[in-house]
Description:
The complex is a heterodimer of chains A (125) and B (365).
Chain A: H1 2-23, H2 31-42, H3 49-70, H4 74-117
Helix pairs in contact in A: 2-3, 2-4, 3-4
Chain B: H1 7-17, H2 25-43, H3 47-60, H4 64-67, H5 69-88, H6 93-238, E1 240-244, E2 247-253, H7 254-257, H8 267-281, E3 286-293, H9 300-320, E4 328-332, H10 345-351, E5 353-362
Parallel strand pairs in B: 3-4
Antiparallel strand pairs in B: 1-2, 2-5, 3-5
Helix pairs in contact in B: 1-2, 3-5, 3-6, 5-6, 6-8
Amino acid sequence: MKQFYYSITLVSVLAVLILAGCGSAPEVNKEASTSAIRAAEESGASKVPSASLYLQLAKEELEFAKALAANDEKEKAESMLLRAQADGELAVALSRSVKDKTEATDAVERVRQFQIDNQLPQERK
Amino acid sequence: MLLSVCDNSKLITSYHKKGNNPMKPSTIIITAVAVLLLAGCASVPPPELVNARQSYEQAINSPAAQLVPAEVHKAKQALAIAEKSFKDDPKSYKTVDLSYIADRKAKMAVALGVTAAEQAKEENANKEYQSAQDQVMKNTKSDLATQTENAKTANENLAAQTQITNETKADLATQTQMTTAANTDLTKQTAITKSAKDDLAASERTVDQKNLQLAAETGARMDAENRAAKAQAALVKLAAVKEEARGLVITLSGSVLFASNKSSLLPAARERLSQVSDALMETKERKITIEGYTDSQGSDKTNMDLSQKRADAVRKYIISRGYSAALIEANGLGKDRPVADNASAEGRANNRRVEIIVDRGPVNK
């Protein structure tokens, strides 16, 4: 009797798994890549020439990963998602580096102007 | 772009699958070449891996190696994984994708290095800005302190100058007061001097007048003295005249002037008194005292009345001759002051007399 219930349970689990597998394409974790793309967009990467390229690549790679997943090529899809994540993160880094460079330039200029306005000696760079 | 495939290896592989014949020398050579090509295909990395290696080289030669070593390390690890995949399965999509990811990791390390450098640059600029602000603040405080000190000094100088000004004003007020006082004194002295001058002029006028008066008086006195001397000389001829302490005494004998026991003047007496009066007129400003005397015979009352009447008769006559009545006094003295012995007739005759005493000087008016 006990063995019977065990067999019923095992069959039920297998049935659920089979039904789930037949219902849709294999799921891939797109969270990391979509987060990287969102972060790149929020950092203004689309307006930074050097970063916008990688943002565009990340988006294409995401779409391609989705296509691969839909084509039941889960491993390739996951690998492609890693590429999308890497491009997204690179877009963020480039966008921030340009932004930081602008801010640093502004800070240096502000110091220089402040020194001129107050007739202070300027440090030689 | 995304599909990275070794087309050469496909060609070689297809080519390799056709070779089932016994091996000829040419076949051996071809086979060897094919083996070499296969080996070469295995050693030729995909472009992604080549790019990843170049990117990594750039990363380790950039400031990122110093600034973000952790990111460079991640790139290194990613490249190592790609290299391993390439070694294990050079044709796989995994090798391509891992190389792609390693390239991005290396690029990201460079980008983060740039970011870190720029942040450091900005931080230094901010520090420098803060330092400059501190310097400006310090300079401003120093300037303010200097200005405060200068203002303090200026206030002290102003206070000193104000003090000097006040003292000068006080001195000026004192000097003005002194000048006013001096002017007042000068005015007073001028008035006094003027008064003194006026007094002096008045005195001089008075002196002149007095001198004139004195000269006139002196002249008058000399004139009077001359007239007195003339009168005295004339009187000496008319009667007994002698100088006494009480004045010039002219003694007229009673027998010449009056009848016995009478007080009316005899005619001869009138002529004599006329001459005496004329002589006295020369000294008419002098006081004259007429004293009548009798001898000792008869009662005193009778003698006093008779001597008074006789003195009055002489006074009246001299007044009638023009002498001032106010200057003539008449006194009856009876038998007093006899000038001779009443025992004898001659003595009694001499005692019966009238004396006219003329004062030495003119009457003070």
